[in-house]
């Protein structure tokens, strides 16, 4: 059964550069739980701005955002930080691993912060996510010793540690070679099949073609893909 996991209503956002311009124009859409969604559009159309807003890191907008049955608009930073840690996983272009910490420690950190499981369990879960992404052999290495693509895969494992309701990615396969980007894509497909929701900004047409729905943006607006289409069971 489909249920709405994200609802964005009339999102408007302005930047001052230095003149006021509208970067998001009346963005309205719903996402169903278990949906694998791509957001596409020309460079500068507002994709990253939209994703950043949905990530709850940007609170300077007009409109209404609800996720996992929770209204997020108008909440304070503490509330949003807790919500993010519990419900959201991020795979952004700048993955912000802590360079002096090991791969394993980086992946464990959001799990320890959540405080739901003892450290030993968080460690086991972290190793499981690293195996999933093919990085278990690097668990004890400092993050600073990895290549960009390897760091990105660790960031994906970290994003999955708390089994987030929604995984958000900005070019989640951007730094990866073909084999690894196909692997990440397959992992996302699998997570969506098991009920997690994936929202990914992408420039990769092959990636977008394999998702359940493509939202196309142009000049701050959604020009295609507002509506969830009927999906075949996969
Ligand atoms: N902090 C900011 N201040 C002013 N303008 C900004 C700011 N961030 C982004 N912009 C502008 O807002 C518009 C949308 O940017 P955004 O990064 O959302 O586009 P995008 O669709 O993600 O592009 P790309 O595909 O190149 O990543 C662009 O014109 C950009 O120059």
From TrEMBL:
This is Lipoprotein-releasing system ATP-binding protein. PANTHER family: ABC TRANSPORTER ABCH.1 (PTHR24220:SF86), IMPORT ATP-BINDING PROTEIN (PTHR24220). Residues 6-234 form the ABC transporter domain. GO terms for molecular function: ATP binding. It comes from the Bacteria. CDD domains: ABC_MJ0796_LolCDE_FtsE. It holds the Pfam family ABC_tran. Keywords: ATP-binding, Lipoprotein, Nucleotide-binding, Transport. It comes from Spirosoma utsteinense.
């Amino acid at each position: 059964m489909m249920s709405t996991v994200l609802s964005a209503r009339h999102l408007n956002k302005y930047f001052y550069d230095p003149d006021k311009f509208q970067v998001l124009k009346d963005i309205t859409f719903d996402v169903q739980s278990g949906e694998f969604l791509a957001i596409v559009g020309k460079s500068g159309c507002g994709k990253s701005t939209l994703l950043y807003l949905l990530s709850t890191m940007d609170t300077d907008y007009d409109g209404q955002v609800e996720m996992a049955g929770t209204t997020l608009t108008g909440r304070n930073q503490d509330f949003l930080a807790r919500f993010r840690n519990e419900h959201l996983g991020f795979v952004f272009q700048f993955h912000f691993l802590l360079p002096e910490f090991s791969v394993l420690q980086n992946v464990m950190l959001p799990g320890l912060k959540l405080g739901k499981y003892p450290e030993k369990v968080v460690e086991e879960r972290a190793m499981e996510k690293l195996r999933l992404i093919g990085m278990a052999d690097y668990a004890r290495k400092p993050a600073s010793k990895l290549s960009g693509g390897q760091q990105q895969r660790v960031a994906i494992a970290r994003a999955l540690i708390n089994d987030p309701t929604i995984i958000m990615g900005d070019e989640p396969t951007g730094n990866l070679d073909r084999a690894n980007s196909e692997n990440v894509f397959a992992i996302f497909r699998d997570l969506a099949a098991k009920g997690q929701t994936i929202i990914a900004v992408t420039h990769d047409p092959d990636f977008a073609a394999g998702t359940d729905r493509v939202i196309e943006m142009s000049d701050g607006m959604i020009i295609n893909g507002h509506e969830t289409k009927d999906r075949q069971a996969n």
